Amino acid sequence: MAVEFSSLEELIDQFDGILLDAYGVFWNGNSLGLMPNAEKVFNRLMMANKHVGILSNSSQLAEKEKSKLEKWGIFASKHYHFYLTSGEIGKKALLDLKLPFPIVRKKFFPLFKPHPQFSSYYDLFKETSFTETFDPSEADFIYLNIPHIEGKDQTETVSFQEEIDRILPLKLPMICFNPDKVAFEGNPLNAVIRQGAIGSLYEKRGGEVHYTGKPYPQAFQIAIDQFEKVGIRREKIVMIGDNPETDIRGANHVNLASALITETGVMSFHLKEKGSSAFDMIDKSDTPKFYLKSFTL
């Protein structure tokens, strides 16, 4: 498949609202931080009077992610207008008691202890009606935390199979605030297992999983509402991401224009593994309107 690449300047000319994924677009993992030239691009977007939003599948609260960017010189209002995370959206559902299954005990069972490199899930449940229990038979649901073994990220889901087998017979619903199956961390970058992969494994074994974040419409609609508040119509918004299955699929489902980054993030790893045939393997529902090599001018 021959791919025709666009430039970021072309998108700046066509769209008033720019919706960005973080990891793999302007963020290169927690070890490497901000992508080279990302600050320059943010400055260009703001100088062009674009309304810039960030929609991330991070299960962290938005303030945590924003503070991380501040350490690299990227600030709300100066470089972008809003930051939405799956964790933030999920916390609101917890606060409002809007979960898609019966709530009796108001208790959750955390699958995996807090990851030492990330904020604890306690932040998500703080001020909610829920308390944790380490006895899954007492819980209304499973909260799927960032997977790890003794603080170390894993590269294969088989590492977690025993834990899944242990909780599966209880038939508890699971909530997942990060549908991404992998994240790219370390230096050099390495694909490590994230919540989406564990959720998928639980589903394949017959478990019930409820996801918050991309590619599901709710997250995109919340972002679209932010643009519409300042008078930007849906047809003038473009989603820029690196993952066809989350960023692009989700944008397509809500009729947003989409642009796929290919030289960084998820798509770059697909291309390294499969060469140009990776483009042919993109499902029709995951096909972007535009292709960009990177988040550079």
Automatic annotation (TrEMBL):
<dbReference type="Pfam" id="PF13344">
    <property type="entry name" value="Hydrolase_6"/>
</dbReference>
<dbReference type="InterPro" id="IPR036412">
    <property type="entry name" value="HAD-like_sf"/>
</dbReference>
<keyword id="KW-0378">Hydrolase</keyword>
<protein>
    <submittedName>
        <fullName>HAD-superfamily hydrolase</fullName>
    </submittedName>
</protein>
<dbReference type="GO" id="GO:0005737">
    <property type="term" value="C:cytoplasm"/>
</dbReference>
<dbReference type="InterPro" id="IPR006356">
    <property type="entry name" value="HAD-SF_hydro_IIA_hyp3"/>
</dbReference>
<dbReference type="GO" id="GO:0016791">
    <property type="term" value="F:phosphatase activity"/>
</dbReference>
<dbReference type="InterPro" id="IPR023214">
    <property type="entry name" value="HAD_sf"/>
</dbReference>
<dbReference type="InterPro" id="IPR006357">
    <property type="entry name" value="HAD-SF_hydro_IIA"/>
</dbReference>
<dbReference type="Pfam" id="PF13242">
    <property type="entry name" value="Hydrolase_like"/>
</dbReference>
